[in-house]
Task: structure prediction
Amino acid sequence: MEKSWEQAVGAELHKPYMNELRSFLKSEYKSKTIFPPAKLIFQAFDKTPFDEIKVVILGQDPYHRRGQAHGLAFSVQKQVEIPPSLRNIYLAIKNDYPDFTIPSHGNLSYWAEQGVLLLNTVLTVREGLAGSHHGNGWEQFTDCVIKTISEKKENVIFLLWGSPAKRKEALINSKKHHVLKSVHPSPLSAYRGFLNCRHFIETNRILIENGRKAIDWQIPT
Result:
C-alpha cells in the first residue's frame, strides 16, 4: 500500500479480521476467478495518496466481468466497453460542462491522479457474482478508511450515490467536510435525478472556494 496510506491506516491491516480476510482471498484467488487481479486490489490507494485526497467517490463491488475491474470504483480498463453507470456519469458531467467531450474509454485514472479517491466499499469479487465477497471484512476496512479521512483531513468532498453509499454518511463529520448525495448512476435509477445532480460543477466550486485546484473532469483519450 502507498506510503501515506500505510501511515494512515496501516495498523488496520494487521487486525485479526484482516488476517482472516487474507486467508479467504488466498483461497478464492487460488480456486476461483477473482477481480480485480490481486496486484490491483489497492490501486485506488496507490493512485490517490492519502495526503492528496480532495474528493471521495464511493462505489460498491468491483465490476465482475472479465477485463473490467482494475481497482478504481466505476472505472474500467481502456480496452473494455464503457459500463452503463459510467456512461451516465459522463452525461451528468456533460450537463454541468457543455464543452465536456464524452471519452472513448472508461479508465478514470486521470481523476484519481488529481486527488479523487475512487473507493469501492468491497475491493474484490468473483467473476459473474456481484456481492460474492460481501461480509468477509472489506466493509470493516473501508469504513475505517472513510472514518480516517473524516478524522484526519478537512474539506474533503464526499460524493454519495445510491442508498448503500448514503449510509456511509454516518461515518463522516459534516462539520469538517462536504457531502453531496444523489441516486445511483445506474440506468435503473439515474433518471430520478442523477443526470442533473450538478455534483461535478459543485465539487469544483467548493474546491476553488477553499483555495484548491479544481478537478479537470475531461479524461484524455
Summary: Strands lie at 34-35, 55-59, 116-120, 125-126, 157-161, 178-182.
